[in-house]
């Protein structure tokens, strides 16, 4: 089982009015999903976003966006450059691979030297 984590790519305050409380401070945040397992760490290309009001702490969904919020969102979306998708192997993976290679090497050595005959 792998664990998923959202890594913050870009976080910015925007000076637009909240549709709920009409306070003019919103926070837009862009996240990139990363998966962590026992053998690999994978960075995905999936980017998500979130807009919250700093006063009433409500999440503002795209249905409630005004034109000003949408323009600001599009601007900051261009600034949020995601990390490259990658797969990194953990040290546990490398240890298991070395052990398996050693076992195969020992087995080949035993059968070529005819120490044990079958």
Automatic annotation (TrEMBL):
Keywords: Membrane, Transmembrane, Transmembrane helix. It comes from the Bacteria. The chain crosses the membrane at residues 92-112. The keyword Membrane applies. This is Uncharacterized protein. The lineage of its organism: Bacteria, Pseudomonadati, Bacteroidota, Flavobacteriia, Flavobacteriales.
